[in-house]
Structure prediction request, 716 residues.
Amino acid sequence: MNGKKVILAAFVVLALVLFFVLDLGRFITLDYFIRQRDVIIVYYETNRVMTAAAYFLIYVTVTGLSLPLAAGLTLVAGAVFGLFWGVLIVSFASSIGATIAFLIARMLARDWVLGKYGDQLAVINRGIEKDGAFYLFMLRMVPLFPFFVVNLVMGVTAIKTLPYYLVSQAGMLMATIVFVFAGSQLAEIDSVDNVLTPGTITALVILGILPLVSKKMVDLMKRRKLFGKYPKPAAYDANLVVIGAGSAGLVAAIIASTVKAKVTLIEQDKMGGDCLNRGCVRSKALIRSARIFAYFKRAAEFGLTADGVAVDFAAVMARGHEVINTIAPHDSVARYADLGVDCVAGHATITDPYRVEVNGRSITTRSMVIATGAGPFVPPIAGLQQIDYLTSDNIWSLQQLPGKLLVLGGGPIGCELAQAFARLGSKVCIVDMLDALLPREDAEVSAIVRERFELEGLEVLLGHRALRFESRDGKDSLVASHEDREITVPFDRVLIAVGRKANSEGLGLQELGLELNPDGTVQVNEFLQTSCPNIYACGDVAGPFQFTHMASHQAWYATVNAVLGGYWRFRANYQVVPWATYTDPEVALVGLNERAARERGIRYEVTRFEMGEVDRAVADGETVGFIKVLTVPGNDRILGATIVASHAGELIGEYVSAMTHGLGLNKIMNTIHIYPTLGEVNKFAASSWKKSHAPQRVLNFAAWLHSWRRGSGTVT
Prediction:
């Protein structure tokens, strides 16, 4: 806790202690005012401004400290100041006090709440970002929600201060009027309970939920307008139509068929989608070949001689085909047909909420899941269309190793393929407009990857913005801008790896009125439901995670909600999201890294352990890298882990499991790890955390005790 927070916390605690110890609350109760009513009113008649100012200050202080006394004070305002001035004073005093309480909660509790419940709060924040005004307005209008509780809860959310103040003032106005008016009739009122009659509460509840009801009515009208344009089938051909047979689509189909729903799966290309045919599987086969050849180059390091070893690039690419052919039966039409899935080859067009057209056939369905994935994004750079460029889709057609390969983009795909081709013999240059490779990772992670790349002969040009491509005399080159200078980078082939774009076009989504995000992904809610209630989307086409394992993860929620949405619904869970980049060394991450924690304003502690201190890493000659674990300050609860190492993608699994099941570093430390393995690094990191949090007073006492038992008069 920083100095400002300490001072604020001390002030709040001191104020509350003084309030309760001195029993100051007895002076601002409704009972006290009733007894002193005549004296206070007489004083007010002769000192109007001072009385109003004192009352205003007291009200702000009480509400700012979250003391549950606002209702009685509001009644007093009506009795002393009358309806008009009472409403005016209380309206501003309550709103200012509420905002102070809101800011105090934000400063003192938000870090702790974000650290402990960050992912759950992220869901709330998304709702507040979308419907925050309605939500807060409803809470303020309904007196069933305690005034001070709303202040404290909203303080840990992402709502901004000014909207909070303005909506609070507007939302509390009606209840303020009711209470101040009741206070003006204080002769007939002897307690707060006399104001909160069932009739009064009912009226305020109705007023409070009116904005929410109105919004729901608008949504219902939109839905009726959408569905009303299309005839509802008397019977359906399928319970679920899944569009796309990649990772997300295959999982969706198998889940729906498992619960005995009638499923139609539509794919216009190959079963298995991008991951099997053009992405993960293909690239990892290539990386494996490149890594084996890199070991041959290091033969002397292991006491070996490997003369005469050469790269047969065509054979390397052919092996990729063989790997795909081995895995393909798992994703084949035959397998899914055996599971009861109706597999249809062709391009799907959604013609209305109930119908999908493919090959001139109209299929009626109760629900749909869009799982069309994503493809390489090709930026509109001048001259690029005149170049025979490569992407992660078509690079696998190469039969000859490029002499000079330019890789545009320093993200995971660009880095993985750049290193693989460099190891196979290409002279590779990476160009990226950003200042670091793998920009989502911490700076030290990016630095290690860059250092390894440059050690292996790759040229890395960061901070270079691509301006145009040129072709002169049969030679291709990229012109890039760097520090107000233009530089020319010649190449034989260029790989465009600057990101991926959702495959959301040509499906009829825009014609149907489905909302898309600015990046082209389909807009979905926490249930993976689109703006058309019976149509769901998951995987790369929905985002925000472009990982195969996350596509499968989302597919479960989308499918269960689509098939059983009328009875049960489940919010997609993104609390623990791991990923890996398969460079050498590999980079794996789960949860938060330091970059993300700083961006989200989450406090953390860092525990780091070097791979060079792991015996197995030394024996394997793989000492480059480290593990870095983020924990809640003073606690072993894991916020995230980053591993840079050989086989980091495998090593991260222990932290994924620990975070999923709420296990801390103490549990990992107390788990037996086989010696010698790379996995010991996880135990060593946990032990390092434990050592840094050892109870020094207990240890000092133990030292004294042992010294005493030895008969020594002093501690040694």
Remarks:
- The two ends are 35 Å apart (CA to CA).
- The chain has four domains: 3-215, 238-271+332-376+501-564, 384-499, 578-697.
- The first helix runs from residue 3 to 21.
- The CA atoms of residues 139 and 145 lie 6 Å apart.
